[in-house]
Write a structure and sequence with these properties.
alpha/beta; Butyryl-CoA Dehydrogenase, subunit A, domain 2; single chain; binds flavin-adenine dinucleotide; 604 residues; eight-stranded mixed sheet
Length: 604
């Protein structure tokens, strides 16, 4: 397997599967520089002051409060962290963008959604696809929070099939404007936005076109809104239908070119997806924090419940998902940052550099969106369980955290769509020769039919077994996906359950590897003793990943292989998911839980 050696050999999107990454080459949250730490602390302090104590008001659907907090976030520069300085942003790079998104989102899903919709899908289409006049006109106002943005793609009949919308844009007789007619649905920030990115079809074009549409209460220009949707969670996030009735938009407000809207919509979503993953991290930390404190305080059977194995197990698992989520999100964020910078150094414009980079890392963006949105759901669910009846009460933060978490699996592309996209994009990259999967997949095929190697890693070395296991999990993906491609070719996309299974293998390999690399890097610089619990978390996550991979691969193999082929692949799977030294998972969990309860907080 190749390794990453210098900056010019940056890991490409999807390449993690076939290229070994060294621990010293990954960025981890422990690598934040002083500027980033200051930013993190000021966002955290802002949320502790403006959001966390007002949780009840958000739950009681105080939409005005969301707008007010967003305005204050704008004044402090948090909305402009990713915007270049020439447009009144802070121009801080993608790791910092993820950092702000992470810490601003943890106390209320309503703020997370308002922030994500505004800074991501509401602003980025103009920043990345707008012309200079459009950027100059809109971006400074969006960066400072003078105006808020919304993104109108979904329609009653066009959800996951986003390019099928019926909203029309018709050129006026003088050729100077377009008239937009149609209905958009589920539009976040609709109640207080001044700028709407609207996707509409011109004539019978195959693809939709993007427009920048301004909204002014005094002059609504045919724009009306439905009532606020009654939702399971994110109660103070404004979500409305938006109706366009002969809304006149200057032709100058077309984004990019006619028919380019679907591309714009999808690329804006790539960024939105990885940011959504980051937006689940602080929520996991806060939920774990509350659970740890409660478990230490709550006494049953004359014992703090934190001392019960059943509770220790939950606390350990909650912290582990947060730790690994952080590892994977910031690892990918730095790859993206580095790639953008490399492109900028090569003379590309800011917009081109970002666009091409996000397209390149779309696989990781989908992986992270799926993994982290499901982790926050599990984490808040177990958080409720740790608090027992109190967890079910709206007087504790668990209940709303659980409800708020649910939407993350639906928007920015459902998790089903993202799972299938991740594998589909990877296969496409392989076909185009951008990532060499064919060679490694053939090597795995030969390994299956050859005599098993007796070479074993030196188990005295930290993570020797785990790193060997990661390599094997990647082989499982290559074996399953490689054979499936051979069998079905272009028709593979019709075998959705197989794709979903393959996607879970891919996701687990990326996440587990990120956890191990983070812990390994930190052991090298801070010592093994100082990282005892982090080592335990990395190993615990991997243990579950191996189980998931085993189960999903079995399912996949049985769905398309029979007889000798099936037997051979199942034997390979057994070999690729076999621990030489089975970890003591109970001991790992106890180590993690004891640290959490002794510190009385999420402390990693
Ligand atoms: C609170 C909230 C805020 C939102 N904010 C915005 C916003 O600001 N702007 C915006 O444009 N949209 C927004 N959305 C819309 C959101 O992006 C869509 O709800 C989402 O893309 C799914 O579309 P849908 O609801 O029509 O579900 P559908 O597409 O009808 O999907 C229903 C189910 O079928 C599955 N499915 C669909 N197609 C396939 C397929 N090809 N293969 C396998 N399974 C499939 C889905 O995974 C899902 O499980 C928001 C939604 C909500 C609920």
């Amino acid at each position: 397997m190749e390794t990453t050696e210098n900056k010019n050999e940056l890991l490409r999107g999807g390449q993690f599967l076939v290229k070994e990454t060294k621990a010293e080459d990954v960025f981890t949250p422990e690598d934040f520089n002083e500027e980033q730490k200051m930013m993190r602390d000021s966002v955290k302090e802002f949320v502790d002051r403006e959001v966390w104590p007002k949780k009840e008001e958000f739950e009681n659907k105080n939409y005005a409060l969301t707008e007010e907090v967003m305005g204050k976030a704008g004044e402090l520069g948090f909305l402009g962290v990713a915007i270049p300085e020439e447009y009144e942003g802070l121009g801080m790079g993608f790791v910092s963008t993820m950092l702000v998104c992470d810490y601003i989102s943890g106390a209320s899903g309503s703020i997370a959604t308002a922030f994500g919709a505004h800074t991501g899908i509401g602003t980025l289409p103009i920043l990345l696809y707008g012309n200079e006049e459009q950027r100059k006109k809109y971006i400074p106002k969006l960066a400072t929070g003078e105006w808020f943005g919304a993104y109108c793609l979904t329609e009653p009949g066009a959800g996951s099939d986003a390019n099928s919308g019926k909203t029309k844009a018709e050129l006026t007789e003088d050729g100077k404007s377009y008239k937009i007619n149609g209905q958009k649905m589920w539009i976040s920030n609709a109640g207080f936005a001044s700028v709407f990115i609207v996707f509409a079809r011109i004539q019978d074009d195959k693809n939709i076109t993007g427009f920048i549409v301004e909204y002014d209460k005094e002059n609504p220009n045919g724009i009306t809104f439905g009532e606020e949707e009654k939702k399971l969670g994110i109660h103070a996030s404004s979500t409305r239908q938006v109706f366009f009735n002969d809304t006149v938009v200057s032709a100058e407000n077309m984004l990019s070119e006619r028919g380019n809207g679907f591309k714009i919509a999808m690329n804006a979503l790539n960024v939105g997806r990885i940011k959504l993953a980051a937006a689940s991290l602080e929520a996991q930390r806060r939920v774990t924090d509350v659970a740890v404190k409660y478990a230490n305080d709550r006494v049953q059977f004359k014992t703090p419940i934190a001392k019960f194995g059943a509770i220790k197990s939950k606390l350990a698992e909650m912290a582990t998902s947060a730790y690994v989520g952080e590892a994977a999100c910031y690892r990918a964020a730095k790859n993206i940052d580095d790639r953008i910078n490399l492109r900028l150094e090569g003379g590309e414009s800011h917009a081109d550099a970002e666009l091409k980079t996000f397209e390149e890392y779309a696989i990781e963006c989908s992986i992270l969106k799926v993994a982290c949105s499901e982790d926050i759901q599990n984490c808040s669910d177990e958080g409720i369980q740790v608090l027992g009846g109190m967890g079910f009460s709206a007087d504790t933060p668990m209940e709303s955290a659980w409800r708020d978490a649910r939407i993350a699996r639906i928007y920015e592309g459902t998790n089903e769509i993202n799972r299938m996209l991740a594998v589909g994009m990877l296969i496409k990259k392989a076909m185009k020769g951008h990532v060499d999967l064919l060679g490694p997949a053939q090597a795995v095929g030969e390994e299956l039919t050859g005599i098993p190697s007796m070479d074993k890693p030196d188990f005295n070395e930290l993570f020797a077994e785990e790193k060997d296991m990661i390599k094997k999990l990647k082989k499982v993906f290559l074996m399953v996906a490689g054979s499936a491609v051979q069998k079905f070719g272009q028709d593979l996309e019709e075998h959705q359950q197989l794709l979903l299974a393959a996607s879970d293998i891919l996701i687990e390999a990326y996440m587990a590897e990120s956890g191990i690399l983070r812990a390994e890097k930190n052991v090298k610089r801070f010592g093994e003793d100082a990282q005892k619990e982090q080592i335990a978390m990395a190993k615990l996550y991997l243990y579950h990943a191996v189980d998931t991979v085993n189960q999903k691969a079995k399912e996949g193999i049985a769905s398309f292989a029979e007889g000798d082929e099936q037997r051979m692949m199942l034997m390979g799977l057994k070999r690729f998911t076999k621990y030489d030294r089975m970890p003591n998972v109970v001991a790992l969990r106890n180590t993690i839980a004891e640290k959490l309860t002794s510190e009385n907080k999420y402390c990693f």
